[in-house]
């Protein structure tokens, strides 16, 4: 009986190690860069807490790109549930910023949610900025939010560029745990520049995004798209 119990404890401990180490931020980013929906789905199922929510968020983006809208919607709902639960327990700026990003994507799927979720997004980003004003992911999500928000309502392309630049500068700080978004910040700043007619500046930002993360698929796609047009 004692041997059996020890064996069971060993198996359980190995399962827990595997469970917690199977999905980390870099693994999820790598799967998202290659739009590997199978791996993202596995990470979503096996990760816990913030990593699970992040996997669901990236899964939603990938599913939307390839036209699996229901999977994208379900993944966003899963991310929302996970993050809202985490925020009740122990709020953090990264949780608040990611939930704001999730809300923003939900609004893009269903504009009727804009009134309620738009206000929640603004509150979350303000709380996150108050909690960690130097957090680059907070600045990045604020930049994304400003990109889609008219200037009359406090957003606009100039503000989006400013916040993306702020995020880029903040990403120069050392990072050991939650570190996603550096290449993404350059990409969003490039998109804002493109919208304002500064294609040269946009191309430079997208190229820098690839230098930051050579596997970053979105910036590569945007650059290739411009090459085809030329």
From TrEMBL:
Signal peptide positions (record): 1-23
InterPro entries per the UniProt record, alphabetical: TPR-like_helical_dom_sf, TPR_rpt
Keywords, comma-separated and alphabetical: Signal, TPR repeat
TPR repeat intervals: 183-216
Name of the protein in question: TPR repeat-containing protein
Organism encoding this protein: Shewanella frigidimarina (strain NCIMB 400)
């Amino acid at each position: 009986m004692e041997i059996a119990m020890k064996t069971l404890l060993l198996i359980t401990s190995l399962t827990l190690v595997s469970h917690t180490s199977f999905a980390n931020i870099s693994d999820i980013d790598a799967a998202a860069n290659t739009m590997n929906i199978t791996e993202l789905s596995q990470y979503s199922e096996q990760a816990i807490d913030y990593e699970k929510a992040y996997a669901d968020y990236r899964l939603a983006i990938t599913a939307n790109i390839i036209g699996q809208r229901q999977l994208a919607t379900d993944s966003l709902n899963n991310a929302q549930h996970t993050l809202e639960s985490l925020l009740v327990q122990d709020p953090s700026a990264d949780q608040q910023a990611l939930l704001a990003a999730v809300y923003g994507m939900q609004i893009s799927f269903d504009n009727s949610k804009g009134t309620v979720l738009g206000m929640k997004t603004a509150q979350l980003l303000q709380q996150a900025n108050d909690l960690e004003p130097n957090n680059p992911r907070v600045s990045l999500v604020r930049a994304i939010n400003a990109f889609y928000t008219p200037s009359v309502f406090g957003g606009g392309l100039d503000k989006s560029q400013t916040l993306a630049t702020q995020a880029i500068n903040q990403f120069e700080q050392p990072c050991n745990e939650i570190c996603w978004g550096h290449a993404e910040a350059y990409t969003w700043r490039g998109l804002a520049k493109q919208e304002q007619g500064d294609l040269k500046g946009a191309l430079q930002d997208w190229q820098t995004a690839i230098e930051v993360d050579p596997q970053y698929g979105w910036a590569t796609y945007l650059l290739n798209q411009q090459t085809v047009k030329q």
